Amino acid sequence: MYKTIIINSKPEAIAHLKYAISESNLGFTVVSSYLYNKRASDAVARTRPNLVITDLPPSKEKNLDIVKNIHSRFPDIKILLYTDRTDFELAKSAVSQGVSGIVCPGDDSELTAALTGIKGLLDRQATQKKRDRLFDQLIVSARKQFLTDIFMGNITGRENIQKKAKELSLGNHSCIYCPFWIAIPNYNEYMTNRWNYDKERFLVAVGNFLRPENKSFEIQNIMFTNGEIFYVALAETSDATNFINTLRLHLTNTEHNLKTMIGLTVNWHIGRHFMSFHDFIDHITTPILSNSNMNVEAIDSTKENHALLLDMYKNVVISAILDKTPRLKEHLNYIVRLLSQSAENVLSDALSEFCEISMQNMAPHLKENAEFKRMMRSLSEANGATAQNICTNVLFMVCREAGKSNLTASSSTVKRAVEYIQNNFARDLSLEDVAKYLNLNPSYFSRFFKLHTGFNFRDYLIELRVKKAKELLITGKYKIYEISIMTGYKNSKYFAAQFKAVTGLTPSEFANGEAAKSTGA
């Protein structure tokens, strides 16, 4: 049933409309009716009906005010104008304000026809919303699988990954992605002495404890390796602070419940968060999948250790993603201990080779770094705990530099944004348009653009338009109203006001001054 509100200055008209709508059997139900007053507007905002049937107010000066108000605030609500006013200008104006139909009182067949047309619009709208919801669900599901495929090595090649990421960024709106780790210090002991089932059932059990009760966010298991589980938490929100605080509280409760209920000790830490899927993928592809040619077989030829070393490399890469956590070094130390257990006989050689591989794939510019060279020489000469400590410090440097390498991607994004603005400044360009072009969340793009250019988007656009206007004024070929249009202003007075705000001169004063300079006056 489609909720309907009637607004009319005549009680008898309201009564007739209720009766006619009931008799039409088109699926409309009148939830409330009002005479013209403030309560009518409040009811629309509170009830959010599917249809509003309204007369024009008694005061001709206000004419379509209520129609404009409803359409501007709630564009999905259909509006049917029920009035005996039939002048053409009114009809044209009503249609431009979002009115779906105009019906004269007294002709119920006309009313039924209008309601039938509106029902068709609402049916299509409802169907499209269902499709959009299903599409969003499929996209989220596809993103989850995509992340898993990246970290399991099922998808390789930087270009392929970024192309797929761009496709999956469609429909991305106010969504936060936050990676986090759960580490199990006593994993081997626990699996041997406490857990009586296989690894898969263990992961399911831990996942059940992680499941949020309030559905404010979702948690996706991305990778499991050697007693550590990598997850990504996803939430459709732009409130990053509240989301991170909620996630921290949830993980604290999970840690307590795992200890209390199944005797499992875990540690967790949260990485940096990302305001869009594309941003997340852009960050991880910088260090991760240049490793497709990684020759870890040079360290150990056995298949078992080859797989282990690949897992360790993925751990280091993910550590780079978690570059904002204060526990990064602790996490890297854990990785190094596991790596050391697999190469006791050739410890310094294995650790050195592993650091070299990590550097080449994650931060190749470190190859000529004097400090990196010094640490690598020390590592090749060390043994035992000393070798492990040096290796941890080397990997820490690599992870930090890998995080910095993302600045290249940031610079590329800024360049693309600036180029797009410069190519489109003359049209009605909004921050949302540029964010959509870059596959970024608008609020994230706003902060990103300010951080990297020093301008907020609006100020940058105004400065650019004024700069172009000055160039056109100097030529002396165009009238001011023509330049106004050419630089993206539909209103020449507004253009003049913004020009003066930036330059201190009106366009005419600026043009006259330039003309005087050219003639030597």
From TrEMBL:
Gene Ontology molecular function, alphabetical: DNA-binding transcription factor activity; sequence-specific DNA binding
UniProt domain HTH araC/xylS-type: residue ranges: 415-513
Listed Pfam families: HTH_18
UniProt keyword list: DNA-binding, Transcription, Transcription regulation
Keyword Transmembrane: no
Keyword Magnesium: no
Protein name: Helix-turn-helix domain-containing protein
SUPFAM superfamilies: CheY-like, Homeodomain-like
InterPro entries in alphabetical order: CheY-like_superfamily (IPR011006), Homeodomain-like_sf (IPR009057), HTH_AraC (IPR018060), HTH_AraC-typ_CS (IPR018062)
